[in-house]
UniProtKB/TrEMBL annotation:
<dbReference type="InterPro" id="IPR050358">
    <property type="entry name" value="RSE1/DDB1/CFT1"/>
</dbReference>
<dbReference type="GO" id="GO:0003676">
    <property type="term" value="F:nucleic acid binding"/>
</dbReference>
<dbReference type="InterPro" id="IPR004871">
    <property type="entry name" value="RSE1/DDB1/CPSF1_C"/>
</dbReference>
<feature type="domain" description="RSE1/DDB1/CPSF1 C-terminal">
    <location>
        <begin position="4"/>
        <end position="288"/>
    </location>
</feature>
<protein>
    <recommendedName>
        <fullName>RSE1/DDB1/CPSF1 C-terminal domain-containing protein</fullName>
    </recommendedName>
</protein>
<dbReference type="InterPro" id="IPR015943">
    <property type="entry name" value="WD40/YVTN_repeat-like_dom_sf"/>
</dbReference>
<dbReference type="Pfam" id="PF03178">
    <property type="entry name" value="CPSF_A"/>
</dbReference>
<dbReference type="GO" id="GO:0005634">
    <property type="term" value="C:nucleus"/>
</dbReference>
Amino acid sequence: SRGGESLLAVGTVTGMTMNPLRHKESHVVLYRVVSGERLQLLHRTKVDDGSSGGGPVLALVHFQGRLLVGIGKSLRLYEMGKRQLLKKCELRGLPTMVKTLQAAGDRAFVGDMMQSMQFVRYDATANRLVLVARDRSARPITCQELLDVNTVAVGDKFGNVTTLRLPRGADTGAVDVSGTRALWDSSREDATPKLETLCTYHVGEVVTSLTRASLVAGGAESLIYVTVTGRIGALVPFTSREDVEFYTSLESHVRSEVPRPTGRDPQSYRSFYCPVKHVIDGDLCEAYGGLPYEARERIADQMERSTGEVMKKLEDTKNQLM
């Protein structure tokens, strides 16, 4: 809202205890970045006094020149004021607690601490935030990364990475002036449109961070994830049907040949929380190089390729990423 200025918003809480979860006050503190070297305090705004059923401020994001803040079960839109932030509108009744928050255009992507993703749209005409769609599965969200205006990737405490997409046309009824929306919101049954699950994959550890990045100049952009133990992994999108068919075939053949010390099927492990969907197990495909010579020859013959071609394909895919 102030052109040419860089501002930093920080959420704070005082008197907080974890068990039971309670606090005295929550604030949003606003700073001005001066010459890129130091911070100048502008003002401090109380957003919750601990008795109004709110919660701590866990997520903030810039939204159309304003500040969108997740406060407990509420989502609020604030505007810059001289002495404090000015509340413009609020969406209440989110499942448990806003954990992550991103924005694009007039949409906000809200990650709940226990109940997965909620897609919210801002109706500028009526000055209100409207719930557009939510996930049908309960996922304790730890991080998220926006892929496009309709798609978001999320990580959860169960060690899964999932890609969710807003169904086409799902937000057309979010902003209407006919009164249908009010009837929809007051319905006893939850008729809110549900997000589509495009991909899901169990990485085995709590995912703490997600980001879109290219690790080398000119390389393919991938979804990079980091886990609680410090492991770094990447989900690389395939751009051709040939690659999809090759790795699907390789994965199925290696799965039947790879040693199983515990007797557990690799696919059942990757489907620990929910069935793996539209993701190839790269670690399993990489195990091809460690198989006995006879097993590698047998797999290559079944794929109608030579072992050299299979190994070269694996190397080319890694070189596109790193």
